[in-house]
Amino acid sequence: MNTALTASGILTKRENSMKIYEASTAPNARRVRMFLAEKNVDMEYVQLDIAAGENLNSENRAKNPTTKIPFLELDDGTCIGETLAICRYFEETVSDNPLMGRTPLEKAQVEMWQRRVEFYFMMQVGMCFQHSTGYFKDRMTPVPEYGAVAGKAATKYLDDLNAQLADSKYLVGDYFSIADINLICALDFARVVKIKMSDEHTHLLRWYQDVSARPSAKA
Ligand SMILES: N[C@@H](CCC(=O)N[C@@H](CS)C(=O)NCC(=O)O)C(=O)O
Questions:
Q1: Residue of the nearest CA to atom 18 in ligand 1?
Q2: How far apart are CA 105 and CA 175, in angstroms?
Q3: From ligand 1's centre to the CA of 12, what distance in Å?
Q4: What does the pLDDT look like over 117-168, one tens digit per residue?
Q5: Among protein residues, the one whose CA lies closest to atom 9 of ligand 1
Q6: Any residues with CB less than 8 A from the CB of 44 and at least 6 apart, and which?
Q7: Counts for the chain of helices (H) and strands (E), in that order
Q8: How high does pLDDT run on average in the chain?
Q9: How far is the CA of 55 from the centre of ligand 1 (A)?
């Protein structure tokens, strides 16, 4: 079904709908799909072959100068890049199931954990992937030593995440949020570079089982 949002956040059927350009295996793309699944937003997804560099062509570069996916194209042609900015757009336009906090305190806590997961875990996993596999060597210079350092930093941060989840159902208390979405997408992708939870991460493992069972995790 083609749908679009009205200013009040009501989903309506439209001839031309907004689209998200993405790649089904990319972790940032999954963050957005999972976020929209939690909010029951139906979306048209356009697949770009990032290994072949389709995201780098002039048409896509004109829409999104960073060339990174995912990016959102609205009905009027406006494009929004950056995973978090896309999620913010839907958080503001679709009132159902807020995922970025409901009170000033919760919003700050969600942002704190979202940023920690992004900077101290997901980014390190990404650098480990890019620098140790050479997957994007046609567009960057891999430095394997840097990849190894980043991988170690990501693995070490699993201990901090485990500690946070010792007394907390989700990263922010009992409130399932975008921070949890970010973490599960990063953790699943981390397996590609063999970064995994250990048996000692009992709280993180419990959290992982719980979040993996959500229907949105299949997005
Ligand atoms: N800061 C961006 C990062 C996006 C990003 O790194 N996307 C990766 C896929 S997960 C990508 O586009 N890789 C293709 C490339 O680097 O050419 C965001 O949050 O959306």
A1: 82
A2: 12
A3: 30
A4: 999 999 999 999 999 999 999 999 999 999 999 999 999 999 999 999 999 9
A5: 26
A6: 2, 17, 18, 19, 20
A7: 8, 6
A8: 94
A9: 10
How many residues are listed for the chain in this entry? 219
- Residue 190 sits in which domain range? 104-218
Which atom from ligand 1 is nearest to the alpha carbon of 23? Answer: 9
Cα–Cα distance between 141 and 151 in angstroms, integer?
A: 17
Q: Ligand 1 test: best mutation among 69, 89, 182, most atoms within 8 Å of CB?
A: 69
Q: Strand locations in 2-152, DSSP E?
A: 3-5, 11-13, 19-22, 44-47, 71-73, 79-81
Per-residue DSSP letter, 94? -
Asked if 176 contacts 150 with a C-beta cutoff of 8 angstroms, the reply is no
Half-sphere CA count of 22, side-chain side, radius 13 A: 23
Query: Within this chain, do residues 57 and 17 fall inside the same structural domain, yes or no?
Result: yes
How many domains would you assign to the chain? Answer: 2
> What whole-number distance in Å separates Cα of residue 92 and Cα of residue 98?
9
β-strand pairing of 44-47 with 19-22: parallel
Q: What is the CATH number of the domain that holds 111?
A: 1.20.1050.10
Whole-model pTM: value is: 0.93
